[in-house]
Amino acid sequence: MHRKIGIIGGTGGMGSLFSGVFASMGHTVTVSSRHTAVTPEECARTNDIVIVTVPINHTIEVIKRIAPLVNKDSLLMDFTSLKKREVDAMLENSTCEVIGCHPVFGPSVNNLQNQVIVLTPARGNKWISEISAMFKKAGALIEISTPEKHDEVMAIVQGLIHFTSITLVNTMRKMNAVPEEIEKFASPVYRMRVDFAERILNQNPELYADIAISNPKVPEILETYIKTSQELLESVISKDRESFIEQFKLASDYLGDTKIDAEKRTDRIIDFASKLKGSGSDV
């Protein structure tokens, strides 16, 4: 079914990506931003599906501004990395159906093939099947969640992983480690670990600050991480080999058989990366 889709913040990275995806499906896409003649208000009034995709620190104010203008039979969504407060704002300021949406990837991807999109339906059931089918048609993998559960999981998937990547590199910095020198001695596992940290640190720091600070679940996760790190550090400082082994085993047992599959997957990645390096490509 042909739909009119309005994207507020549509000239940004994520907005541009999805504008192309929706247009390729034959939908009419209207984009509104500070750089367009179409205002957010006009975009909200005139479309079947209205999507807010602006920086996290502006999302709530934009929702409050445009949500009352969305037609009752239309769908209001957001593409923010957080869900509870955004969904609450959409519900409080609109009468239409509301679905929170988090594309769990950055705008640098070429398409949605095998990319995860989390949907958090909040009001009504008219639109959820259609929007899910739309994303699946583009190749995305759909997960349905509540806003609360989403934010709890994202505190680990984003908050914890971003935190460990930043602290990893800052530790190297404080130790005056020279990356180019370390690479001469580095294993493929080290190289991959640092590559992913570098990938994160090549992004917008304001976005990552907002993700960490705005999610109320993140502090508890990070406090647990610091405490767990301290326990392992004490084993190293005291040369308590048995304690170190015990903590290693506890983590290993927690993972179960998934670590076996992970080793196989990473073996393939290492093999692929080694072949690229051997051909002269920059890995």
Descriptive account of the structure:
The protein is of the alpha/beta class and 283 residues long. It folds into 2 domains: 142 residues, 3-Layer(aba) Sandwich (Rossmann fold), CATH 3.40.50.720; 129 residues, Orthogonal Bundle (6-phosphogluconate dehydrogenase C-terminal fold), CATH 1.10.3660. The chain is built from 12 helices and 7 strands. The chain has a 7-stranded mixed sheet, with helices on both faces. The C terminus is likely disordered.
List the helices and strands and how they pair.
Blueprint: E1 4-8, H1 13-24, E2 28-32, H2 40-45, E3 49-52, H3 56-66, E4 75-78, H4 84-93, E5 97-103, E6 116-123, H5 128-137, E7 141-144, H6 147-174, H7 179-183, H8 188-201, H9 205-214, H10 218-237, H11 241-255, H12 258-278
Helix pairs in contact: 3-4, 6-8, 6-10
A few lines on this structure:
Strands 2-1-3-4-5-6-7 form a seven-stranded mixed β-sheet, sandwiched between helices. The chain starts with a strand and ends in a 5-residue tail after the last helix.
